[in-house]
Each structure stands twice: as structure tokens, then as C-alpha cells.
Fold:
Amino acid sequence: MKKLHCPCCSECYISDAYLETHIQKKHKEFLTAGISPAQFLFNMRNHKSTNFGTCVICQGKTTFNPITKKYNRLCDNPECKERYVKEFKARMMKKYGTEHLLNNPDKQKEMLAHRKISGKYRFGKKTIITYTGDYEHDFLIFLDQILHYPESDVIAPAPMTFKYKYQNAEHFYIPDFYLPSLHLLIEIKASDNKHYRLRDIEQEKVKDTLALKSGFNYLKIFDKDYTEFFEYIEDEKYLKPAKSSDSVLNESIVVPEKKDIGELLLENESRFFKRFDINCIDIINESIDENKLNIKLILDIISKHIEPKGNLTPEEASQKVYDFYIERINNHVDSVKKYAEMIAKNFRGESWSEKLIANASKHDYDKQNNSTFIGNYAPYIADKYGDDNIKKYFKLKDHYLKEWDGVWVVMHIKNNKHHPEGWDENKYRFERWSPPYTPKNMDEVSMAEMCADWMAVGKELGNTALEFWEKKAKKFYNWSDDQIEFIEKVLKTQKKL
Structure:
């Protein structure tokens, strides 16, 4: 296990989150000019004597990015971003020369910009970004309004163009986004896009290979699910510069002979047709491992969603909310596991009973192992399940519930199969709330885990899962007769733990 030494004393910590908290509490005198502990650590580790970065274009000052924990490569002047893009294009033109009209990147960008689903988005205060589809638009809103990502660090489409050969013809590939401070290329995809079918898989693999070999970091985001992006910006190994930040692929790639369509489907199913199955993660999670969480990030996010009461500071109120959340989610998951074991025991011999135990061991995985998700979910949990002893410390800000309902709960439902809403046939167009939902393909093991979840919540709220079923859940969803029979059979086995 690595040890991180405090540059101000002899203390050691196992993560930057704890080290930053230590500096905030014990060494505030070093946080001059309002810099954060993360910025102070970056300066110390990189022997910086100034509290600003240097723009790669005008050599002017750049700000510190609290999300990537690095200085931005570009300043806030939009002209520098424009020049940065032009220089990339110039290098590409020098390398590849002019191309005929229908295979020209600028012409394709122009054509994409004029599609009905395209538009312009005002990012931050100064930047206007053209998007070419609903999914790209959603990602821009997410970066801007949810993460408050610096506008100077977002370029769309990416300024680099990659050349490749496919079916004996030359093509080019332009990624959707580029984040300079992370050297990160981002591609946005929809799994059910009618233009993205099995015949495109091999070509998509070529594009992925181009991006991965380009010297830049590369991430693909499917169906407005930003879980991997959260993990990406939190994982320290991705915050290191790419091997070559301003380079392009030096050789073209030739696509191999076309494979059988069934072979392609098996080879690429999890990557190109994934259905957000967190339960497939090969990790048995016993409880929240706070050593792996960025506590400082969590508390910062919580503080944006709550107003402290009494004499508490925002930091103190956020800590109260976080402490309640950790205790509550650990207790809930433990209770779900116990009810799942009870259900599996009562249905021993059924094909799904053993898998139920495995699924329950990873119940609500995203609520326990993603710092950004926890920060945005904790206020809701504290407000919904907390009593006066916790609610006396805070109240929710007006914007929060709308944001939670429109972003975080949707993401959670997509990532956890025990929620019936995620099984609706219009899953990828799912928006909260528009009942009734039709979970016609929900399998038995997922329904059994759902029942264990209801039992655990019922125990917490002083009622039973069967009461919840009769009063709400039975009517809220369009269950089939077989599903109703199965669910009621499971719920009637509930015993007091």
C-alpha cells in the first residue's frame, strides 16, 4: 500500500483525500491566496512557485481544475481555444494533405451541424459549442450544470482527425470531445442507435484502436451513463499526462476481413451492447471501504446541495449528512443480504436462488463505491430516511431534488437490475417519473432481489414489503400474471429478522 507523506510534517496517509483533509485542518497557513489543498499538493509535488498554470497558446495564466486536480492547459480566452484547434488542423493537413470533398473532415462537421438533432449550447459564460445529437447535448449539460466543469477545458468536436482504411477505402475519425487537461478523447454512443448496428462493430473497433494508440487517453460513454467517467476522473492513474499529448497516429490501420455476424456479436456484446449490469462486476462488496473514497470530493458535492442549520458551517453540516449516509447504507445493504439469504433458503433448489446471494452481495454497488455518486445521493438519503436528529443540521437547496430526480436516480436505476423501471422496453428513453412501467423481461433473480430490498426498507420504515406491494407496487407497474404470482410467493415468506 502506498504512503503519501504530508509535505508540511511527518504524517503519512493512504490516499490524497485523507492527506488533503489533514492539510485543510492542520496546515491552513500554507493555503495562501485561497488555494485548495489539492492545488497546494500539486504545486509541491511539481515544484511550482506560482498558483497558476501556463496557457499552451498565449503563455497567459490558467486556473486550477478542481475536478482533474491539474492546471488547465488553456486560459479562459476563447481565442486561444480557437487557435489550439486550428493548430491541430494545420498539423493534420501537413501530414495528410487535402482530401476530396465527401471525405473532408470540415465538410462532415458542417453537414453534421445542420442535422435536425444538432444545435448550439452555451457552455459557461462565454463558450458556444455545437453538438450533433441528443447524447452529445446531454453530456455538455452534465459537464456544465452538474460538474461545473471549466469551459476552457472542453473542445467539441475534438480538434484531431485520425485516418484509417476500411473495406479498401480511406476514412477518417473525429472523436466527439477532447478535454485538454486530461489529454482525454471522449466518444459518445447510444446502444440502440439505428445507425449503430452489428455491421458497424468492426469499424468501431478500428476507431477505438486508433484512439487508444494515438497517445491520448480515451473513453467511450454509452447511453448517458457517466459512471465510468466519474471513476475515470477519480482514479489517479488517469490523471497522469498521456504519453504524447499533441501527436497523431503515425500509421493507418487496415481492417481485417469481415467476420461472421454471430461471432462479432459474441465478441463485442459486453462492450457495444452493454445494458448497465453492475451485478456482473466481479467484486464481492462487504461494506463501504472509505479508504477508496475521495472524502473531500464527497463533502464538497454535498455542500453544494444543502444549507446548514443552526451554527454549523457548510463543512460541518456536510459531514453530518455523510456520516448518516454511510451508517444507513451499510445497515440497508446488510439487511438486504440477510433477507436474500432467507429467500434463497426458502426456495432452495430453484435455479435462481444461488445467484440471488451473489447479486445481493453487490446490492447498491454504486451507492457505496463512487465518490461523485455518493456526494450527489447522500442529501436525498439523509432527508428521506433521517429523523429530526439529523434534519436539524441541514435542509435541501431548491435545485437539488429536481437534479437528483433527473440525473442521479435515473443513473442508479440503469445500473441496478433490482429496479423494475430499468426493465421497461423503453429503457434507454427512460425519464423519471412517467409510470406505469412495464418490466416484462425482468428475471426471477432480479425480482427476488427487489423483494429483499423492499423487505429491508419496510423493516426500516416500520411496515412490511407485502403492505408496500398491495398499496403501491402492484399497481405502479404492469406486471404479468406470472410475475405477480412469483413476487407474492416470495413476499409471503418474509419473517422477522
